[in-house]
Structure formats: structure tokens, C-alpha cells
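User: two proteins, same treatment. go.

Assistant:
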Amino acid sequence: MVVQLPKPLPLSERASARIELLRLLLVGQVVFGHLAMVAYPEFASLDLSRSADLFVAGWRLVTRFGGQAAIVFICLSGYFLVPRLLEAALRAPDAPPLGTFIRSRLRRVYPTLLIALALTAACDFAGIYLFGGEALYRATFNYDATAALDWPNVLGNLFSLQPTFAGAFGSNGPLWTLGYIVQFYCAGAALAYCERRQRGAGALLLVAILAAAALVRPEWAILFVFWLGCAATRWIAPQKTVSGLAVLALGISLFVLANQLPPHINLVAAGFAGMALVIGCNVPVFPNCVATIPALLKPIASANYQIYAVHMPLAMLLHAVLIPLLDWSSLVVRVIWPIVAICLTLAFALSIERLLRLKRDIA
């Protein structure tokens, strides 16, 4: 029997623009937070009577939400993709074959992933062995990035097994988000396939997957639930500006609050924040205004995935090169650092995005 699934609410031009703007803000949180981690001192060592340290304190306070931003990215992935899997599971007439779904997602993910891994290897080896940054690569992360430059980690990331079955490859720890999303693609497709073959089999498999993940890696189970659950927001849209703004305010509040909560609880808060933010993007705010992204920012919003994938190894290499050349305690250097680093990141990310778009157009 074919179950008729109601069509998701259409995404208006304004809502699409707000989601693109949300993506831009999220990737900004991730990148600018990591730039602070690479080059700025920790809070405990700051002297707030100095303008240079006061600048760092302010920077760290407003860019400390990278972890929550990554979780909202996972929610956005579920928002756009899980309805397609649900249609396939319920045998909707226009649902794409599951094999086509997986191939199309991997074709979008893997070119950038391969470039990011190659760039990480080149940048990290140059930073460690050519520019004497071994101590930097050992101390910046909560793991030894020099020891992480090994074949098990590169293969683990190549097959998107980070962080479930593999560690970070070199300095590119942020690829953990991509690892989870690809794992969720595969798990979601397996659920849809089982449900399509036998009604109720997908639900049983979901229970088994979540039970196993809860025992081995609870973080995976929590994020997978929100990846699946965020699809429900495709059928929810505020009908009034006031209610939409309330949901948006709730999402922002949970996003900020999650940063202060203990592990696993912060994942739940950030997951609900992601769902609320997506719903809030559909609020009819200022109906007489057209919500669009400034033309200058549109290419950056389109390349958010590439920015996310390459910013860390580029920042580490740039810092390793500049450490002996600059006075990192000065206000001028601390202000200029993120400008130079983001310009380098954007140059690489936009070039990659343009190259991949050209390849898709030719194909």
C-alpha cells in the first residue's frame, strides 16, 4: 500500500534567502571562532587593562558558538534531505531511487572532501616541517595534530568515518561534521530501504540503530534524531509574524544557552535551536521588504561548505608562517589577523566552488 505523504510547504524566496543568511552566520561562527583558537591567547591569560587583550576577550565572547553552529548545520541537512528519504520509504510515485539519492549526495560531498584532505596534508606538512610549527600543531588542539597525520586517519576521513570510528586528520578537525552527515545519509537510506521493503521494518531498524549508538556513542544517536526530526519542520510554518518571531527568539536563546550546558545536554539544546531557527526562517517578517542576501555575499554563502572544509589547515599554516615575523601581543596584529586569514580562506574556497561548479556544468 502506498501512503500519501503531504507535500512539504513550499520554500519562499524570502525563506530561502534567510536560510542562506543563516548558513553564512553559522559558518562565520565556526571560522572566526577557530581563528581565535589558532592565534589568540586563552581567557585565563588575558589582562583586560590592555586594549589588545580586551579586543581578544570581546572576539572570543561573540565567536564561541562554533560547536552549536555545526549542530545547526546538521539540522539544516536533515531539513532538506530527510523528506526525500521519507517519500522513498513511503513509495511516493515521484520519489527518487535510493541509489540515486546516495550517489547524488556523495557527488556533491566528495570532490570538496578530497581537496580538503589533500590541502590539509600539504599545509600541515609545510607548517610543521618547513616553517618549524611543530609546537603549534601539538598545542593548539585537544589532540596532537602532528600525530594525527597518519594513514588510518586519512583513510577514516576519506570514508567519512570521523568521529565515530576515526580521529581527525591533521589540523582539520572540523571535518567531523561532514563525517556525521555522510553517515546519516547512509543510515537514513538504509531505514528508507527497509521500510520500503516491509512496513515497520524501518522503525525496528531505527530502534536498533539508536540503541547501539546510545551504548557506543550517544552523541551520534542524539544528532541522528535531530537530523531526522528536523524534517518535520518542512511541514511547519508560522502563519503570523508574532508567533514566527517568538520561535526565532526561542531558537536564538537555545543556541546561546547550549554553549553553557554540559555535554549531551548541549547537543539536545542546540538541536532544538536548529529546528526553531529553521522554522523561524519562514516567518513573514516585514512583508513589504524583500529578504535577500547582498550580492557581494551570495558567492560566499554558496561556498559555505568549501569554507568550512578548508579554513582550518589554511589558518594553521598562515599562523606558522607569521609567528616569527609579527608581534602577536599588539592590537594591530590581532585585528589584522582574522582579516588576512579569512581573505586567504575565501580565495581558496571560492576557487574550489567555482571549479566544481564548472565541472558540474560541463558534465
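Protein 2:
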Amino acid sequence: MWLLGTPTPVTVAFRVVEHPSAKASSAFGRVDEDGTVYVQTPDGERVVGSWLAGSPEEGLAYFGRKYEDLAAEVAILEKRVAADPSRAATSAARLRGELATAAAVGDLPALDARLAVITELAAARQGEVAEQKAAARADAVAVKEALIVEAETLAESADWRHADEQMREVVERWKAFARLDRKTDDALWTRLAAARSSVQRRRRVHFVEVEEKRKSAQARKSELVAEAEKLAESTSWGPTSARFRDLMTEWKAAGGAPKGAEAELWGRFRAAQDAFFAARSASRSERDTSFKVALEAREALVTEAEVLDPSSDAVGARKRLRDIQRRWDALPPAPRDSSSTLDRRLTAVEERIRAVEQAKFRPDPSDNPLVVRLNESIAKLERRIDRAEKAGDAELLKETQTALEAQRGWLAQAIRGA
């Protein structure tokens, strides 16, 4: 057998079985007596090889199958031209170039004609593909330019937080589109990146401002904590309670400190506040206990006074009342409301005794100038006590109660002396 393109004969080592293509090949070629194989072309016969391995029919069949292989390639290209016109055109050009020297026997001009059609179809299809790509590119450019306009609008938004979220979505939509040519895509991306950088820059500025505010809040809250911790040991219950209320208002107005510092400062502030109010509650509880004991003692004295009968022994009733009043004056303070009621009951006993004494022509002590002045002074002290309780001023309250007890003692003595 002669290989394509070489004049040197090669003898095959096997016998080829006769193939049906031998008859078809005989119309387009021949094998001469010395084994040279020819193929018919428009320009005449052309040598395609040599056959020495069997009969001329077998040689034609062999080279006919080579033709069939070429025809199969052409058929494949005919099917692929629509899907991949560029590759089909390249392969068609290659095959057309190989037909002139192809070691095959068959209707080579027909194959060449089919390849020419494939070349024309591929060219037409390439034009269509180019138009489609151009249209798709134009659409992609339009979409990406629209995204850039959206991004540049977001870059001017006053709501940077919303703009940041929307910008992320714009970038993700951008990435979903295929890249254009490098120059165009890079130019468009530069605009988009500039808009995104603007939003991110404003975002960074915002967080820098937030951090500065938090540090300022931390400094202010540290001052409030220091003051609260000093006030925790105060026993001026009214003024200090009011100051703690103001501190809480100032704490809220100071804003939020950095997360870790906020928790630590709040813990210290709350601890100081709790310590003060716990001490105030304990003091009030102790005072309430003292008030309860004093109130019970005063109740007992009033009960003892109310059984006195001056109608049978006015002098003895007056003497026993004075003893009751001395014990009354020696008692610790009691709640003003309850104590006032008991005061009135004790005063009623005294008036009852005085009425009996007056019935015996004793002068009325209420006309005594000293008694009048003491009653006026006692009324003023009672009003001061009311104001001190409302203001929560424990020191003023204690001072005024002491003065009131003294004035009442003097009044009792003035009345007795009258």
C-alpha cells in the first residue's frame, strides 16, 4: 500500500475483505496492473497510492472507505455549522485543503461542493452570531450603565445605611452579567467603584463619628459614676434621692458608650444607686419601728389621761395630767399625722380639766400673752415640718421636730403656770 503523499510503496501485512464501497469507488477511480491507484478529478486522474495487498477491487474498497471517512467528517460539519459556525468554517477550510492530496477514491468534487456550502453557511451564521453578540453587548452595556446611574444616585443619598445595603445589591447584580470587552468593562466598573467608594467613605465617617460620640459618652458617664459612688454613703435622703434622679436623666442624655465600657459603667452606677436606696430603706424601716414604739407609748398615755375625772378632784386630775405630759415629752418623735391626733386628744383632756378649774374662777390661760405667742410659734413649726417632709430634708425635719417638742413643753408649762 502507498501512503498519501509518499511515492514509496508499503506492503500491508493483512488481507482486506471486499467492501461494498469498492463498486462505488470504481466509478471515481481505478487500480492499474502495477497496483497504482488513481482517482478521477475535474483536472484528470491523480495518483492516490499503491495497492499490492490484494485484488484491484479490494484496493478500491480500501481507498473508498478513506473517502467515506472524509464524507463522515463533512456530514458532522454540516450538523455543527449552526451551533459553532467559527469552528465549522475552520474545519471546512482545512478539509478543502486536504481534498487536493487526499488518499481517497470517491466523488471528491461533491465533497468540495458540500464544504463550500458549509463555508458559506458558516460565514452567514457567523454574521448572525456577531449581530446577536453585538445586540447582547449593547443590552449589557445599557444594563450596566443603568446600574451605574443607580449607584451614583445612591452615592448622593443622605441615608448612607440604606445606600450601603442597596449598593451591595447593585454590585451583586453587576457581577451576574457576563464581562464585556476589557476596555469597556473596566471603564464602567471604574464609575461603579467610585460610587461604591463614596458610600463606603461616608459609612466610615459615620462610624468614626459614632466612635467619638461613644468615647465622649464614656467620659461623661465615668464622671456620673464617680459622683454616684460618692453619694452612695449620703444620709441626706431627700436631696440625695433628687440628685440620683437627676443623675439618671443625665445618664440617658449622655448617649451610649462602647459596649464593654457601657456594661461596666452601668454596673457601677446601678450598684451605687442600689446601695444608697437600700440604706434609705433601712433608715426608714428603723424610723418606722421607732415611730411605732413612740406611737404606742403616746396612745397609752392618752388613754391614761382620758380616764381622769376633774369634776370630783380637779387638783388631783391636774397633777396626774402634768405627770402624763412629762412622760409624753420624754418620748421620741412619732408620725406627725398620728401624733397630731393624739395631741388633740391629750389637749382635749387638758381643756376639760381647765374648764373645771375655770368654773372655779381661775383665770383662763389662753389669754396669757406667752401662751398666745407659743401657740403661734408651734403653728409655724408644724408648717415647717410639713415642708421638710415634702422636700425629704431629714436634717431640717429632725431639727424642727426637736424645736416643736420644746415649744409644746413650754406651752404646757405656761398653761399650768397660768
